[in-house]
Model the fold of this input.
Amino acid sequence: MTLISTWSPPPGLSTETSLPSIAPRVSWAAFWLPVAVGLGFLLFWDAAVRFSGSELFPKPLDVGRGLLELGQKGLLFKYIIASLFRVTWGFGLAALVGVPIGLVLGWYPFAHAAFNPLIQAFRPISPIAWIPVAILWFGVSDAAPIFLIFLASVFPIMVSAMAAVQNVQAVQIRAARNFGLSSGELFRKVILPATLPQILTGLRIALGVAWLVVVAAEMIAVNSGLGYLIIDSRNAGKRYDLVVAGMVLIGVIGWLLDLAMRQVERFPSVKWAYGNRGE
Amino acid sequence: MPFFRRVLPAILCWIVAITLLHMWVNLGSFTPKSGSGGSAAPFRVGFIPVTCHLTCPVTHFINDSLQEESNFEPIRFSAWPELKEAFLSEHLEATFILAPMAMALREQGVPLKIVYLGHRDGTTMMVHKDSSIRRIEDLRGKTIAVPNRFSNQRLIVFRAMRERNIPMSQVKLLEMPPPDMPAALQVKAVDAIISGEPFMAQTEMDGYGRILFLTKDVWPDFISCVLAVHEKTIRDRRADVQNLVDGIASSGKWLDQSPKHRMDAAEFTGKNYYHQDPALLSFVLSKPPDRVKYTNLRVLRKDFEEIEALALEAGVLSGKVKFDDYADPSFVPDEASIKPRNWELP
Done:
């Protein structure tokens, strides 16, 4: 049994003009099951801290009080905005650079052969290793964490765009050529629609990575953000409630960002590629 | 494609909205700037939230409170590597930094000068309250967490062991960021921890840490951090450097002038600069009152020659540079001439 209603593939591209609702219909179980698991996790967390007798690790209520304190001081809103700003720009620039480069490298085998080894060599380098470079180049402004987030997300985007172009069926391209499509038309009417689903999957993965590195990126001398909250709280003595509060906020906002990206995947011009098994 | 017609405007609206919100709530871009600072180029000074660097925020707070024309801008860091890199890349004009680290940088060709000290004493070695370690000799075979290989906290262990004829091979030194040390001691992951304050006092306040020694009892007038400035900055902006040193020197005297000043500093620094519990800073600054001192901070040859010898033994310096290469004591020729800031917390 699927939890979300299934979607029937459109008979043709003309359905783009009558978009189905992109809001999912959520069943009773789809809402209450995760709530029950979440509550169970909180109870387990509380019991584990009490059982261990730890004086340092906070209980869920301590974290709740920490969040309340941050809210009352007005820091919660400020820090969330700061992190979202840096991730928006870092990820946005990565998409702007990564998608076109990936498409070009995927389309021209010569360019792929030339640049792919370099890209694959840069890809595994952790953003933490780039911190000294970020400071040397960008100093202590917002540009340094944005650069780190850019680096973390540009390679997954580039690689997925590259693979997407390489996966386009040769028969589709030949058919388009036979219809006399120009290069521009071929890109707009065949390549782009065919690659869009895989590019969006790459963007979704990259957004997760971008949000993941926010703590490392905000280790640089910025004075706001959820990553900064964690680092600042470590410097503040025994405020592990705020450290965990920062972790909880990063987790929840990361989940919401992923949900937002999944909404994009519901468009007919994207959804055709995902089959009809729902979620 | 309808996809792009619907998604792109939403993305653009989000980018504009989040940028404006960030500029408003975090950068204060829509708030009129106050008068202090004027149009002069900023003079940025790096610091870390430890009591060794307390004179930095105290000077800034007093300047601000007196609405003095000042371009002095303290920049807070969370860890040594980021602070060092920002200084090396000249995004900071000056910085508070570990003394052996500044000397090692000079040895590696970085044109800097140590112009003043950050403090005297202000470091403690803590053991767990249940520990069998009662004296320094008991550290044989134990693991001690130190903040950095270029820290005088590491060198003081070398000094203490040498005085007791204990070879360094009999103790294990482990580098650990000071904020992580209290938790490591609490769970007994290490046998002893040593760093600047307030991280050591935290373990004492929370009841699981016991003082093994205060630096003043093992290495009197101990120096951990110094104020370092680029030689180029000294050449091009000598008046700004002099203003900074004067401000820090007189703020140090103000801190040591009365216990009330120290409590006031704990309050406004804890809340506005360090984001630490003011009660913790009050504890460090009062128990005992000479746990950390902010007077007698002139750069003296004999102090640094001792650090040089220990750093050589510890393998962090090679002895290529001497006092005159890395120090410039000319900004405070006479310690007695410094008067405490004439200021009281309103």
